[in-house]
């Protein structure tokens, strides 16, 4: 199951050699197979300047996690705003059509009223007595009765059309209010994202080059430890599912994006956030899924870890604030966080909430 940038075999090899690249800053690969004899060399967590790098690592994780939560809120508000805008456009179209129909009904009712006025000046028995052709009059009287019945139906239709227009106007007003609320929610989330990212960047900017390198090693070792613990449970031996045809397409799309930068709110083609990558990968496979990781968790069918197959989505953290795509051999492809690029990592390198399958 190959990709334009990196085959799954290559991915597994890279993951297996994670310990060889732990000295490279900014890389988040993790070994797909447990190495019981491998004990990472402890990295000093306190720099000469007195900075506790392990505490900084945890603080950065918390800041970027909060930014991810805010990003999900932003994306959700954005999607709802798009939907409401579309509904408002549809309602406006229906209102215009309804108004045209009402104008037509008014014209027809007016014409009927004028015709009735012209023929209604004398009582029916007088018009019959004065008529030169009584049978023709009686035939005409029948048509008049039919016309009166039609006029009543016309007036009833006008009333219904007016009521419909009033309801459409109320619906449009409600949608405008929701749209404005979601715009405000989006703006609030945007401020929160920028606030959390700015705090993280400020914290990182206070580190010297060697401190950043040691911090990168701490991050890699934390991911390696989590991945090793996950694999040590024997979970990989139970996972044998093969990708569906759509799953293969989704994996190829996602792995083709490796190296592109993370950007919150982005859905490609030049950059992605975590759920932007997974939603676009499955869209490319011909199967639309929800935009946010939280909605993917809520709406898509859940599967057991042992039944996981390439193309499935792994949802992380208790609040479903991160999502990645499983690509096989204990590995995922994901857009990690600001300052990073789309990359391959160990599936167990973060706390797993559960697995969802878009094409179940």
Radius of gyration: 33 Å
End-to-end Cα distance, whole Å, is 20 Å
Largest sheet: 6 strands, antiparallel
Number of DSSP-assigned strands: 6
Separate helix tally = 10
Kindly estimate the percentage of residues that lie in beta strands according to DSSP.
Answer: 5-15%
Shape: elongated
Class by alpha and beta content: alpha+beta
Order of helices and strands: HHHHHHHHHHEEEEEE
Kindly describe this structure.
- It is a single chain.
- The chain is α+β, with helices and mostly antiparallel strands.
- It is 60% helix and 7% strand.
- The protein has ten helices and six strands.
- Strands 1-6-2-3-4-5 form a six-stranded antiparallel beta sheet.
- Strand 4 and strand 5 form a beta hairpin.
- The longest helix is centred in the middle third of the chain and has 72 residues.
- It is elongated, with a radius of gyration of 33 Å.
- The two termini are 20 Å apart.
- The relative contact order is 0.17.
- The N terminus is likely disordered.
């Amino acid at each position: 199951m190959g990709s334009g940038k990196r085959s799954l075999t290559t991915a597994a090899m890279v993951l297996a050699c994670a310990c060889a690249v732990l000295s490279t800053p900014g890389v988040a690969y993790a070994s797909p197979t447990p190495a019981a004899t491998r004990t990472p060399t402890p990295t000093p967590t306190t720099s000469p300047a007195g900075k506790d790098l392990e505490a900084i690592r945890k603080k950065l994780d918390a800041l970027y996690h909060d930014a991810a939560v805010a990003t999900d809120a932003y994306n959700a508000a954005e999607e709802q705003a798009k939907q409401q805008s579309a509904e408002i456009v549809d309602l406006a179209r229906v209102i215009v059509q309804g108004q045209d129909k009402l104008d037509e009904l008014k014209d027809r009712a007016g014409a009927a009223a004028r015709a009735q006025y012209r023929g209604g000046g004398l009582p029916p028995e007088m018009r019959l007595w004065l008529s030169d052709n009584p049978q023709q009059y009686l035939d005409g009287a029948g048509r008049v009765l039919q016309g009166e019945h039609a006029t009543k139906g016309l007036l009833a239709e006008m009333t219904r059309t007016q009521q419909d227009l009033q309801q459409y106007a109320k619906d449009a007003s409600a949608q405008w209010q929701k749209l404005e609320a979601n715009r405000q929610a989006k703006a609030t989330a945007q401020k929160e994202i920028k606030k959390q990212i700015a705090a993280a960047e400020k914290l990182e900017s206070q580190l010297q080059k060697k401190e950043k390198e040691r911090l990168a090693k701490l991050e890699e070792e934390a991911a390696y430890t989590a991945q090793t613990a996950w694999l040590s449970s024997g979970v990989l031996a139970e996972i044998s599912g093969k990708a569906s045809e759509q799953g293969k397409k989704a994996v190829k799309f996602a792995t083709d994006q490796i190296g592109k930068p993370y950007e919150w709110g982005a859905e490609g083609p030049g950059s992605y956030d975590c759920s932007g990558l997974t939603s676009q990968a499955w869209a490319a496979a011909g199967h639309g899924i929800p935009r946010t990781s939280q909605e993917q968790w809520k709406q898509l069918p859940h599967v057991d870890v042992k039944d996981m197959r390439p193309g499935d989505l792994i949802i992380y953290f208790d609040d479903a604030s991160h999502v990645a795509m499983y690509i096989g051999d204990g590995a995922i492809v994901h857009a990690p966080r600001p300052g990073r690029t789309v990359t391959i990592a160990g599936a167990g390198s973060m706390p797993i909430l559960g697995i969802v399958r878009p094409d179940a």
